Amino acid sequence: MVSGHGSPAVAAFFAIVSIAELVASPVAGWMADRYDRRVLYAAADAVRFVGASAFAVLLIANDPLWTILLSAVLFATSDRIALTASQCMIPSVGIGFTLATANSAVFLLTQSGSLCAASLTGLLLYVSTPTITFAAMAVAFALSALCMLFVRREQKVPHHRGAGSIRSTLHVDARLVYLGAVYAFLFTGGMLVSVVGPGFVLDELRGDAVDFGQLESAWSAGSILGVLLLMPLVRVVRICVLQLVVLALTAAFFALLKVLDLPLVLVAFASLGVLYNIGRVGVEVMLQSTVPGPALGRAKGAVHCVGVLLGLVLFGIIAAVADDIPPSTIFLTFAAILAAGAIVLSRCRPRV
Fold this sequence. Notes:
352 residues; mainly alpha; 13 helices; Growth Hormone, Chain: A; 2 domains; globular; 0% strand
């Protein structure tokens, strides 16, 4: 935007990231099941370190647009490999904690780190140059790779002779399809907030950049609160039931955006953030409790691939109708689709 390329460049960036994740997800899942996940994560960080260092140099001599678009491919692919590998390690390295507690802790730290990184990146871009910012990212990736090498190795679960091929085979059953559908709805809802949220605040609510910043803050605060709420909730409600409640409430809050105004809109977006992370972490817990460890990477890759694919379809539809339909109507339409999906999933819920 600052370089004068405008909104088409931003749209191209999001499209490239989504397509890269769509292609990388199944490959990352297969790699996470095939190779040492610690080494795989460290290798992904090493690639990001080299890439960030190279892009810091390229920004000096080349058009920033092409450098940024290239970096989007590299970082989206490496991020998917690193995230898949690290999340597959949670059941093993988190022995001694419940899956809900271990996943909540990881998501809480990840969310907090993302907020700190966003703030630090903004500060660096304000006081220095994009080259310095990429150099700082390279240092962070190097430190991350180093820290991963100190993580204890995964403890392999012993199994009887002849069972290895059975345990390492990914079975696409009703439970995996159910989790894929829940994840796809949640992922699409999160993408909807990112894509439609700015237009909703700036155009329909007649807000300004400060109001949009408050919306982002409300979503982030809600996401952190959602991680913290999952731990007590799973003690009183089964996760599969909790996910249906999350989908129903998410549909309700998206629909309410049609009639709400500031500042109540901020409460709605904070609530959506809470529900989003309760559902996302709940999917992780169910995946790790129902899919064997040797097949967990491929299961995660398949589930994420479905979510990204649905998000890309949504992105294309929004791009086609955004000029004719108000953002609140887009939210309301998604709410209706989500409510119908929740009803179907409630009737097809597998016994887990």
